[in-house]
Design brief:
Elements lengths: L5 E2 H5 L11 H5 L11 E2 L25 E6 L5 H13 L5 E6 L1 H11 L7 H6 L6 E5 L16 E7 L1 H8 L6 H11 L4 E5 L6 H13 L2 E2 L13 H15 L15
Parallel strand pairs: 3-4, 3-6, 4-5, 6-7, 7-8
Antiparallel strand pairs: 1-2
Length: 261
């Protein structure tokens, strides 16, 4: 969904408060003479940050994200993380993934996927080594994704515990996951929080509202059933497809609802 299309000067004046920061890779794709210093630019709603704009003389291209930050925390749902990582591993459009697991996330992984320790964590989760997915320590507050100068295109926290949600919503960034999320918000890049908790109390709901107001997408870890998934893996795969489509990486095998008549 587009907001009003505003003059470039008005955008720089601070009139536009929201909308994702465009990476240097995207900005460089506009450097042709025909697109130099456009008079008007489209501003994206943060709920659909990677919609493509192809019509009109002043339409600007939005490229699929190549560099992702993926985090997992201490909420149940490790199977959804596994299918998400497997999908980005297969997707040739994604070149780099920085993966962070919190201590609580590691404990959940051990319970649900029989992960043993931190050694070769990615291989243990997806079943093979990966040159694309690089594990980061949640204690390393000076890692690449802790800086806005690092060209991450989007961040997904899956599953996202309500504790992590609360720290992100309130700007408490003592560990790398929260700091990377804070950077994602301040740089106006897409941040997707796959919150997993039930029932919800008012603190949880308020924190979701705070995070959404700051620019995050609250994407609860709720699977679909109308596609009749044949297994838990298929259910988790379809959820991964939905999240990836939301950040601009639609998957060829995704289910699409078809209205008859």
């Amino acid at each position: 969904m587009l907001r009003l299309i505003l003059p470039l000067a008005e955008r720089h004046s601070g009139a536009v408060k929201r909308g994702p920061r465009l990476s240097a890779r995207v900005a460089s794709s506009w450097a042709s003479p025909a697109l130099t210093c456009p008079q008007r630019v489209p501003i994206l709603e943060t709920s659909r940050p990677f919609d493509a704009f192809t019509s009109g003389s002043d339409a600007l291209p939005i490229l699929p994200p190549e560099n992702l930050t993926i985090a997992t925390t201490g909420a149940s749902g490790s199977l959804f993380l596994k299918q998400f990582l497997l999908t980005v591993e297969r997707d040739a459009r994604v070149k780099t993934v920085n993966f962070i697991a919190s201590d609580s996330g590691l404990r959940v992984l051990a319970e649900e996927l029989a992960i043993e320790g931190r050694s070769e964590l990615v291989r243990q989760i997806i079943g093979s080594a990966s040159a694309k997915i690089q594990a980061q320590s949640n204690a390393d507050i000076g890692a690449n994704v802790a800086s806005g100068s690092y060209p991450s295109d989007a961040m997904v926290v899956i599953p996202c515990s309500v504790g992590t949600l609360g720290r992100i919503a309130n700007g408490t960034a003592s560990h790398l996951i929260e700091r990377a999320a804070d950077v994602t918000l301040k740089e106006r890049r897409p941040l997707v929080l796959c919150v997993r908790e039930t029932p919800l109390n008012k603190i949880h709901i308020r924190n979701m509202s705070l995070a959404a107001d700051a620019g995050a997408t609250i994407f609860p870890l709720i699977p679909t059933f109308y596609n009749h998934p044949s297994s838990a893996d298929a259910m988790a795969q379809e959820f991964a497809n939905r999240v990836l489509a939301h950040i601009g990486l639609p998957q060829s095998g995704a289910y699409h609802w078809k209205i008859s008549g």
